[in-house]
Amino acid sequence: MTEQTRLAVDVGGTFTDFALDAGGQRRTLKLLTTPDEPEKAVIDGMTRVLAEAGIDIGNVDTFVHGTTLATNAVLERRGAETALIATKGFRDIIDIGTEGRYDQYDLALKRPEPLVTRRRRLTVPERIDARGNCVLDLDEQAVRDVGQQLLEDGVTSVAVSFLHSYVNPKHEIRCREILAEVAPEIAVSLSHEICPEIREYERTSTTIANAYVQPLISSYLARLDSWLKNAGFRGFFCLMTSSGGLCSVDSARRFPVRLVESGPAGGAIFASLVARKSDESQAIAFDMGGTTAKISLLSDFEAHMARDFEVDRAARFLKGSGLPIRIPVIEMIEIGAGGGSIASMDDLQRLRVGPRSASSVPGPVCYDRGGTEPTVTDADAVIGLIDPETFSGGAVKLDIDKARRAMKERIGDPMNLEASAAAHGVYEVVCENMASAARVHAVERGATLEKFTMIAFGGAAPLHAARVAEKIGIERVIIPANAGVGSAIGFLAAPLAFQATRSHHVILDDGDFSRASAILKEMGTEIRALIEPGADGRPLTEKRLAYMRYLGQGHEIPVEVPLGDLTGESRGAMRAAYEEAYKALYKRTIPDARIEILAWSVTISTVPEKQQAIAKVRPGQERVSKVMHTIYDGHKNAETMMPFHLRGDLEPSDIIRGPALIGETETTIFVPATFDASIDNLGSIVLQRKPN
């Protein structure tokens, strides 16, 4: 079998990253994102990296794309003019929510603004009960009237979420047919296709989010797909999903909400690869880019999966303060702490960093592209942690003097500090923000971070990883080769996969499994139709889950169930599997308690390549550099000199004593005085805390 040529692109809020694997060689590239026309940077970068490799685009077998466009559209409220059509009497479900308060003692509680204003939440008479029986027929004339009103209001996308449509979707299907007659130009998202599960608020919120970003994502992908075909691309064009799998362009255009966390998902896959090759079964993936920082935990070399997450949280670390999105997703915590995060003084003259970002336009002040507000990247540059000669391979020229002036005026003067001291304050605050996020995520998972190894990647992470590790008590940090484009490399390793979930209630002890078996078969058939065209004959693997709980509990846990038809004989094995999973989480079970199943899930994917642990550090000689670099040491309030190395000059036998800087095309690695660095057989830089 000949080796495939694979190209991956990760469109971030600040940088667009490229990774090309061809002929056993890997090439990478970073360009500033073009937010108004994202495809411009994508096309430019693809053209450049393929030209450097001497490869025609027609010889690329697979093109994998991940993007934060959907996320940013939600956060910045740049989505479509969207409406909601709901069952009569359920207009305000997204305001009522679960009636929970994420902070019960906050009298001025704030929630994120809904993506659909109340004026555009419309209802029609219809009713399906919880068993799927029709109680009230759909009022088709009311749907026609609503469709006409949507046209008059300039709505371009609509979410349809009827009560209990996950059991019987016929009214939603008929609603779409009528809207196609009355308003064919309006995009329609149906809740039974987007999120066919119980919990009305989460299902409606997810469907609205899909409708909100669908016109933007669909038109972008259509333009990019058209350019690829005209340029001669004949391979498979696929998109990264939030669950860590790949899907086709058609699937992505139908379900763009599944792309919301696609970039971070690629980073988690990259971290999993590094963890397995480095034989680090417990690791924390630390991905810090230009706009955000993402933190996720790996156990047994794999990232944890979740069924839902939140976007646009009103309170950074408080669950329940954001808009719920119920899709398969790699579990992580994300905060506005990237290289482009803006530093400012609040009303109480306290230093704050993020969540606002300078992005790529205008960008940090030191980029000299019109930015006036100091950012984390400016702070790093003023301190001296960034080498202007190697930064971004020379593609972005840095103006350190401009950054210094902005830091002094905006941060230093209000605090009566010099620019370097102010920059050190920004550095410390952003590191503490990320350390706090890691602590919160670890507590939610019941993990002890001191036992974990940090795997740091993303353009800004290697500058901050050691300090964050110090704050949370981690002794070992791995910075892989090509860390600056880690998510894009993760795309190349991702399997083609799709997951579907449907609600169907069964009591384990005496329920009928015939309908559940039929649902599992139906989902399997639908998924195979989606991914087989792109699998290109590769073998597929199927995994089934049942979401189970003790009768009457509030939340369920996933339990793997066997392939094939489920029968009465399956009950014993399913109970044993549930109790084992429950005990692993809660250290006990409830004897003889009845168990219920609320939902069923099927995941089908191509079989990923097996990775072997090969990254052993060999003892060697200390690498000494005659090149010295001046940085500001905030703890001593003085400038100091430290050795500067080029990563390309280092070999697996080398040891670098901290403090030191290691420069490369995509990022800079800071080795503080409390760490020593060594190079392993993968080319990763391994930072180990010095004994006290």
Oligomeric state as shown: single chain
The pLDDT mean sits at: 90
CATH architecture annotation name of the domain at 78-213: 3-Layer(aba) Sandwich
Number of helices, counting only DSSP H or I runs of 4 residues or more: 16
How far apart the termini lie comes to 53 Å
| CATH topology category name of the domain at 78-213 | Dna Topoisomerase Vi A Subunit, Chain: A, domain 2
Any idea what the shape is? globular
Question: Helical percent range?
Answer: 25-40%
Q: Whole-number radius of gyration?
A: 26 Å
Largest sheet: 9 strands, mixed
Note poorly predicted spans.
none
User: What percentage of the residues does DSSP assign to strands (E)?
Assistant: 25-35%
Question: Key features?
Answer:
globular; 692 residues; nine-stranded mixed sheet; single chain; 35 strands; alpha+beta; Nucleotidyltransferase, domain 5; six-stranded mixed sheet; 16 helices; Dna Topoisomerase Vi A Subunit, Chain: A, domain 2
